[in-house]
């Protein structure tokens, strides 16, 4: 059962999303060569708490940090550490906010200084794939219309879509129904309705789509160790079309 949100729910989720968007913008400015991922994590927590909200990831199923910080071949769920960023790296910053019991989730991938042309294209196409998926998130469409738009955009540009990890419903908890794969056939899956809120999040690899989990039990990396990028927004389906709550 995919929960539908009330008008009040949507107002509160929009506030949660606005906090998250502001925090991510601040983090992006600080994500430069020489900073450690632990320093980014500490800053993220400080910024969230200052806005009368709570970090949604910290402690979730035992996750030990505020952000997921995934560098280069790391796809998602990278654990912050003393590792410092260097010129030419890319890093995915994935962050969740709990504002008075209303959850939002978003991710960006940030290049550190100058990166190779193909890596820059990977980032650009992942961001574009998210935009294409969001366009399809409208009432009357099917869930996998989102999936098919993301996959089509990614594969047309010579990249691959991660299949082990998916987007999800969100709202009164961090993960709700439905799961939203980033690949699939159009016109399949549940019909989308006004009031649904979805965390849409393409994860895209430069090489093959296969992933594996490191020994820490969290960090997913590309099996072929090619670079990976990740973008995500929390999106409400409204009578006027998709509304990005984390913009």
Map the helices and strands.
Blueprint: H1 7-30, H2 37-49, E1 54-55, E2 67-71, E3 74-76, E4 90-99, E5 102-111, H3 117-135, H4 143-156, E6 160-161, E7 167-169, E8 176-180, E9 197-200, E10 203-205, E11 211-213, E12 220-222, E13 228-230, E14 233-238, E15 241-244
Antiparallel strand pairs: 1-4, 2-4, 3-12, 4-5, 6-10, 7-8, 7-9, 9-14, 10-13, 11-12, 14-15
Helix pairs in contact: 1-2, 3-4
Please describe what this structure looks like:
- The protein is an alpha+beta fold.
- It has a single domain, classed as Creatinase/methionine aminopeptidase superfamily (Creatine Amidinohydrolase, Alpha-Beta Complex).
- The protein is 28% helix and 27% strand.
- It has 4 helices and 15 strands.
- A 5-stranded antiparallel beta sheet has the order 8-7-9-14-15. Strands 1, 2, 4 and 5 form a 4-stranded antiparallel beta sheet that branches.
- The protein is globular and about 45 Å long.
